[in-house]
Amino acid sequence: EVQLVESGGGLVQPGRSLKLSCAASGFTFSDYAMAWVRQAPKKGLEWVATIIYDGSSTYYRDSVKGRFTISRDNAKSTLYLQMDSLRSEDTATYYCARHHSSYPNWFAYWGQGTLVTVSS
Amino acid sequence: NIVMTQSPKSMSISVGDRVTMNCKASQNVGNNIAWYQQKPGQSPKLLIYYASNRYTGVPDRFTGGGYGTDFTLTINSVQAEDAAFYYCQRIYNSPWTFGGGTKLELK
Fold this sequence. Notes:
The complex is a heterodimer of chains A (120) and B (107). Chain A has 120 residues and is mostly beta strands. Chain A has strands at 3-7, 10-12, 18-25, 34-39, 45-51, 58-60, 68-73, 78-83, 92-99, 107-110, 114-118. In chain A, the strands form two sheets. In chain A, strands 2, 4, 5, 6, 9, 10 and 11 form a seven-stranded mixed sheet that branches. A four-stranded antiparallel sheet of chain A has the order 1-3-8-7, with no helix packed on it. In chain A, strand 7 and strand 8 (78-83) form a beta hairpin. The N and C termini of chain A lie far apart (40 Å). Chain B starts with a strand and ends with a strand. Chain B is mainly β. In chain B, strand 4 and strand 5 (45-49) form a beta hairpin. Chain B has strands spanning 4-7, 10-13, 19-25, 33-38, 45-49, 53-54, 62-67, 70-75, 84-90, 102-106. The chains are: A mainly beta (120), B mainly beta (107). At the A-B interface, strand 5 and strand 10 of A face strand 4, strand 5 and strand 9 of B.
């Protein structure tokens, strides 16, 4: 059974950093592109970042470029999101999601999410 | 960037009715669209990919259609458990943009 378990969320002050993790199991992690998708309270889904199967290519939405870094450790079957210079508008539940294949397309599996609150 | 626009924003339907919701892309995306269902307090679930392919385990009352810029998700004989938000998404090339969602409520 595919499982994606996010951790690392919490309350953080504006301008500070936070690192999210996503532990994957139930599939060969190194075969799949992975992503982070967020959802602000009472709002819709917003794709944040994607990394292909071997980590050689990454993609970001414009509003997080230069502030967020997506990475993966295939030996540990873990996905990360380093979030720096956080802003109030980054407040959201962050979902780890698995793309359907090695390269990005649709999201076949989602974690339960971890809440990040950016506030002073 | 391609913008995905969903309509209507919400709809109230009776059990057993047929419902169709729309997703419009600002540019031609071919059949590169997916649909997701998100129930309150839950993470999204994949329903449809490549515009009309039903994902494993999705009931056949869910049907996706369309090509180019205009897409539809139809639910035949809506069930109580179908009350949820539905999102379309462009699935080819960055950014993998979602539509704003359609909220389906049951009367």
